[in-house]
Design goal:
The structure holds two protein chains of two kinds. By secondary structure, chain A is an alpha+beta fold. Chain A contains 24 helices and 17 strands. Chain A is about 40% helix and about 15% strand. By secondary structure, chain B is an alpha+beta fold. Classes of the chains: A alpha+beta, B alpha+beta. Chains A and B meet through α7, α19, α20, α21 and α23 of A and β1 and α6 of B. The complex binds iron/sulfur cluster (SF4). The site of iron/sulfur cluster has 12 residues of chain A, from loops.
Chain lengths: ~600, ~200
């Protein structure tokens, strides 16, 4: 059937064997691909109580029916696993070229299970699988390894872990195409625990499209929309995601010094404008993307991709550091070592606060740019202070007796947006299935940027309906798998229509959002099965009790309780946040119970 | 208790609809979704001059407080919320669009802005074009695929994340219909300027 290759590849590292079998097409129709399909498969494969770093955990790589078709941003793929950082269901997705190449090998899904007794790397050439000894590659950093395994953007692409994943840092990323990351929640550690160093893909199958005329028309219309939206035609290509630095600072929603403030006096010095003026070499983009938000930047010491807004914020405002070259270098170092920049930056900030308050004995202090690189190296190797930081901020802060100083939700460090200045964002973090996350629906569009329309960011009543819609939409886009930035220019209805054109199955906008709702509820069920409850739908006490004393968000804390109540009802869950039978039946999820 | 931030949106969009000639004095209505509730204009209130007490809050699925006072179109609004991702609905009577709806099964704009943003607007028909379950289902069904649709001889239903967004689609539709009307009056052959123009009718 067009849209899916209909093939699953299952690799068992314990025996270094593999098998292939047909994809369950009823499942594919309900979950589409990417995050959705990954969640559904994880439900079956990793039952409750499994240690995420044991051979019983799996890594599920999925693409989607649009991947590799050439539709704008159809370059992404995702990985699903049980998170070693949070213990929740985890999916992370990434752009670049690897996803498109993986699709061309002819598989929709690759499941990696077990554990190899010695380091190994896998080569997938068209459909053929080869296991290679990776003993001599173990310990290598990402950039050198990518080059050694022969990355070629159009023919051969490399996905791998760096030393951080090998050393089981719970904030380790899986890297692909050198500097693209499946970053959050520690999937790099899962790959490390399996002794799997890299997966190299090379393929030649082109995805089929059922209604080519309609596909062409939608491609053309989407291009017009992207060219017309100021966000996708100007802000992102000109300044990259870092364009948000000044914007968030101006509205008083830029988390600063471990969320002790909501504005950073050094924001201008680390802004997208500053990056463009003084450090930008050129723009770059993922495969089939006309937006091109990627920056290639250079300092005296490094040249490479990034930094993204979140990374710049994590090492910048969150650590109280206004030194852009040091931030660019910290970002590059994380990429080379295979680390999640958000969690690393926020964990360092947490350690800085613990140290300044004498809860922890270390030299770390806010504003010390010189401390970034050595601390990051220590995290990747688990040496010295890094041994504690490698487990993320919640375990760190708990160890030193102050868990409340971890700026995380369900154990995942929150990104840059301080929710005291964006009420919807607060509800979003608290209810996100993989923990404090801005990619599970982001309220920055409606609450700050006016996309599609501006809503009052301090409004509490009715906010849940926006959050629910955005969470469902994000889950649908992640299941397709497309880049969320297209959604700043192109409405959801395009996604439904393009999916229909590619697969020949009729999907309406409402159907797409329903797929997202199904995925969201399935993830919720997974977490409930793992023992999470409504008590985990919360935020650090600082955000609930300590109002900023100045700036545009002065006097506001997150009004979580009323929003959460409304949210549970709006989702069709009971007052304890458990999906009702009726809701599950409506979403074809009843069969799972 | 309805938040004043929400009342203000109703008041402003209601007034704009009236001054834009999209409704007569007491017609049309607006609603927004708040989780599992919705807020809708009270029956008989003037959309151009809404007061806080003109808004009624009720459940999306089942009736609760004040429901007898709600607009006669409540059923349609409920059905739309239950079957689409809409968070706001604007229903009004754009006159040129209504005129076109009397002779067409779909309205395919010819101007650039509407062609770009709306592609086409389906027209659905119902014998009792007001307040019946049949009409509510037809309208909601069409809105699964389109952000704005016409109910023949009655008016438009537009959805969005905000009232402002739904109002935007409404005003674009009416403007597109006025342009088509003028083009008809000028009565000269139409020179197609859009690439793949036939695809708009298939959207
Ligand atoms: S917008 Fe940026 S992240 Fe998204 S596909 Fe394009 S280049 Fe990649």
């Amino acid at each position: 059937m067009a849209g899916w290759s209909e093939k699953v590849l299952e690799i068992d590292l314990s025996t270094q064997t593999y098998k292939t079998y047909p994809l369950d097409m009823d499942m594919a129709r309900l979950y589409i691909g990417g995050r959705g399909l990954g969640a559904r498969l994880l439900w079956d494969l990793v039952g409750p109580g499994v240690d995420p770093l044991s051979p019983e955990n799996v890594l599920i790589f999925t693409n989607g029916p649009l991947t590799g078709t050439g539709y704008q941003t159809s370059n992404r793929f995702s990985v699903t696993t049980k998170s070693p950082l949070t213990g929740t269901i985890l999916d992370a997705n990434s752009g670049g070229f690897w996803g498109m190449q993986f699709r061309k090998t002819g598989y929709d899904v690759m499941i990696v299970r077990g554990k190899s007794d010695k380091p190994v790397w896998i080569e997938i050439k068209n459909a053929a699988i080869t296991f290679h000894d990776a003993s001599d590659l173990w310990g290598m950093r990402v950039f050198a390894l990518t080059e050694k395994l022969g990355q070629n953007n159009n023919k051969r692409n490399v996905l791998c872990i760096g030393p951080a994943g090998e050393n089981l840092s719970r904030i380790a990323a899986i890297m692909n195409d050198r500097e693209r990351a499946l970053a959050r929640g520690g999937p790099g550690a899962v790959m490390g625990s399996k002794n799997l160093k890299a997966i190299v893909v090379e393929g030649k199958d082109r995805p089929e499209i059922v209604d080519k005329d309609q596909f062409k028309f939608l491609l053309y219309e989407a291009r017009k929309s992207l060219a017309q939206s100021p966000l996708t035609s100007q802000a992102l290509p000109e300044f990259g995601t870092v364009v948000l630095m000044n914007i968030m600072n101006n509205v008083g929603a830029l988390a600063t010094r471990n969320h002790q403030q909501t504005q950073f006096e050094g924001a201008e010095a680390i802004s997208g404008e500053e990056l463009t003026d003084n450090y930008l070499v050129r723009n770059a983009s993922c495969w089939a993307c006309p937006i091109g938000c990627t920056r290639i930047s250079r300092t005296e010491k490094v040249e490479g991709e990034g930094p993204e807004f979140e990374s710049t914020w994590a090492f910048g405002a969150q650590c109280g550091i206004a030194d852009l070259p040091a931030i660019i270098e910290a970002n590059a170092l994380c990429n080379d070592l295979g680390l999640d920049t958000i969690s690393v930056g926020s964990t360092i900030a947490c350690a800085m606060e613990l140290s300044e308050k004498n809860f922890m004995d270390s030299e770390l202090r806010f504003g010390r740019a010189d401390q970034l690189a050595p601390t990051i190296e220590a995290i990747a190797t688990r040496s010295d202070i890094g041994a504690d930081l490698a487990d993320g901020s919640l375990r760190l802060a708990t160890k030193y007796g102050h868990p409340e100083l971890s700026m995380s939700s369900k154990g995942l460090e929150m990104p840059a947006y301080d929710p005291r200045g964006m009420q919807g964002q607060g509800l979003l973090y608290a209810t996100s299935n993989r923990g404090g996350c801005h990619m599970r629906g982001n309220m920055v569009g409606p609450e700050v940027l006016g996309a599609p329309k501006l809503i009052d960011r301090f409004q509490v009543q009715g906010k849940s309906s926006f959050v629910i819609l955005h969470q469902n939409t994000a889950a649908a886009i992640d299941s397709l798998v497309l880049c969320k930035f297209t959604n700043y220019g192109v409405a959801e209805e395009y996604f439904a229509r393009v999916l229909s054109a590619v697969t020949g199955i009729k999907y309406s906008t409402g159907d797409m959002i329903k797929v997202g709702e199904r995925v969201w509820n399935l993830e919720r069920l997974y977490n409930l099965r793992e023992g999470f409850t409504n008590k985990d739908d919360t935020l650090p006490p600082r955000l609930l009790n300590e109002a900023p004393t100045d700036g545009p968000s002065k006097g506001w804390v997150v009004q979580l309780e009323p929003m959460l109540k409304e949210y549970y009802r709006g989702r069709g869950w009971d007052e304890n946040g458990i999906p009702t039978k009726k809701k599950l039946a409506e979403l074809d999820l009843e069969v799972l119970l | 208790m309805i938040d004043t931030r929400i009342y203000e949106q109703f008041r402003d969009i209601g007034r704009d609809l009236y001054t834009a000639n999209m409704i007569s004095s007491h017609a049309g209505n607006l609603s927004v979704r708040l989780g599992d509730k919705l807020v809708i204009k009270r029956r008989g209130a003037m959309l151009g001059q809404l007061k806080p007490h003109d808004l009624v809050e009720t459940g999306i699925e089942k009736n609760d407080s004040g429901v007898a006072l709600a607009s006669s179109e409540l059923l349609a609004h409920r059905t739309i919320y239950m079957s689409t991702p809409a968070l706001a609905i604007v229903h009004c009577h754009p006159r040129t669009a209504i005129a076109f709806s009397l002779s067409r099964d779909e309205i395919v704009p010819i101007d650039n802005e509407a062609a770009y943003l709306l592609k086409k607007i389906p027209v659905v028909a119902e014998e009792f074009a007001s307040g019946t379950p049949e009409m509510a289902n037809k309208v909601a069904n069409a809105l699964k695929d389109y952000k704005i649709i016409m109910l023949r001889g009655h008016g438009s239903f537009a959805t969005g994340q905000t009232l402002e967004e739904a109002f935007l689609w409404t005003s674009i539709l009416e403007e597109a219909c006025q342009i088509m009307l003028y083009a008809k009056l000028i009565d000269e052959p139409f020179i197609e300027y859009r690439k793949m123009s036939e695809s708009y009718t298939k959207f």
